[in-house]
Amino acid sequence: MKITRFVRMQLTIFAIVTVISLIAIAVFYLRVPQMAGIGKYVVTLELPSSGGLYQNANVSYRGVNVGKVSSVVLTDTGVAATLDIESSAKIPTDSQASVRSVSAVGE
């Protein structure tokens, strides 16, 4: 059985659309670049107490969400929190950190 030129073109177009769709799903839905560490930097923050800090909590700088807390680990002197921060957020190295609870209305 011979495949006609028209059918071959349809299969080629279908294959190209499928590959483009899979790439779009991997980048936008599965967020593969973020999981691979592209577009973010990691900061380890040593605190004397956790103050209610938890994994996946939002990290904000001047009221704008710039990342997430990826882990909170107990240490001998308190806790070590690992923060994943977007590379577009330029936070000075001499900044002071504080842990605050957010109310139900987001304040």
TrEMBL record:
InterPro entries this protein is in? Mce/MlaD (IPR003399), MlaD_Phospholipid_Transporter (IPR052336)
Domain of life according to the entry: Bacteria
State which residue ranges cross the membrane.
12-30
The alphabetical list of record keywords is: Membrane, Transmembrane, Transmembrane helix
What Pfam families does this protein's entry cite? MlaD
Every Mce/MlaD domain range: 40-107
Q: Name one GO cellular component term.
A: extracellular region
Name of the protein this chain belongs to:
Mce family protein
| Organism placement in taxonomy | Bacteria, Bacillati, Actinomycetota, Actinomycetes, Mycobacteriales
